[in-house]
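Posted in: Structural Biology > Protein-Ligand Complexes

Title: Requesting predicted complex, nicotinamide-adenine-dinucleotide in pocket

I'd be grateful if someone could produce the 3D structure tokens for the following input. Sequence and ligand are given below.
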Amino acid sequence: MTKKQQHRLKVGVLGCGPIAQFAHFESCQKARNTDLHAICDVASDLVDRMAAIYPPQRKYLDYDAMLADPEVDAVIIATSDTFHVEASRRALAAGKHVLCEKPIGVSVEEVELLSTAVNASGKILQVGHMKRFDPGLEAARDFVRDEMGEVLALKAWYCDSTHRYTMTDAVQPLPIPSTAAKKPRENPKADLRRYFMLAHGSHLVDTARFLCGDIVEVNARLTEKFGAYSWFIDVTFASGAMGHLDLTVAVRMDWHEGLQLYGENGSVIAKTYNPWYYKSSDVEIFSEKDATWRRPLGADGHFYRRQLEGFADTILDGVPMRGADIIDGAASVRAMVAIAESVRKGHTIRLSDAQGPV
Ligand SMILES: NC(=O)c1ccc[n+]([C@@H]2O[C@H](COP(=O)([O-])OP(=O)(O)OC[C@H]3O[C@@H](n4cnc5c(N)ncnc54)[C@H](O)[C@@H]3O)[C@@H](O)[C@H]2O)c1
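-- Reply #1 --
Done. Output follows.
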């Protein structure tokens, strides 16, 4: 493992729910440049149990009390989607840097307000689109930027599997629940279209943007049968490239995620695994220059730890942000709103016209 750096970021984690238990506490411990300084949850049973496993310097039941701790440099926001914007704004106002789980928000208006707050704060805000730290996708992105020339077209798919929990239960510890956990007033799973778009569509849209840049318009169709949902989304990128995004939840087979990307001087084919296998995407990069395929191993597939190290590098050493910033996070929310509206209206929607909630 990489040696721990001397120069370190003290992190406070808000939320001791599943994503913090599965990814963020361990990432704070393993990262070469961070310390898990504080943890916070309104559920005291969760705080105590997590503190026994990942001992922090401080435990908090109140978020404002954690934000008042002068030793906390940055917070990781690991709460339900609807709390992201408010928790991020409070952290920025308290002078803390923010790594917030995806999606950064649930409506165009709230993420625009947050954007203004980020700009005024002078602090770093990174959105937890951790696939940007998948070494295979990073290699693809480097190839697109440095060698591929103009992008012609992207096909990308993100298809959750009916067998997902059987597979993840085999490799993850069981999540520790609490009846005292703070939940949104409305059950996020009450509207599955919205829930799947926010939970999964946010990843698909961000991966498309990561590789091909801004999306200007979408034309989407949705089919629902036997409890499964399939969105086929035609996309136009600002570069003029076209895209086809397939979001299907759930396919009757293994997790199925990947992409094909065609460019002027080469092509990329990628297969992405369920994130909890911590396995870098299998990415094949073909360059016309030598008519040869390259296939990086990407041995370190701990996307969550790598995104945290990148975030800390930006704060501690001014390294340019490799993750999604507030502009990227807000653009993904706009794209999800536009996709939902395109399904409802049956025609193309420009992202600049998107408004309201996902
Ligand atoms: N990047 C990924 O791969 C990935 C995977 C899963 C989930 N997520 C995201 O992670 C986020 C959290 O998911 P989860 O399933 O852990 O959520 P959860 O709602 O089950 O848990 C959140 C915890 O935060 C606590 N909390 C919320 N607001 C609080 C407050 N103001 N003060 C103190 N405690 C507070 C709750 O009590 C709860 O214990 C979601 O936005 C989800 O989209 C990301």
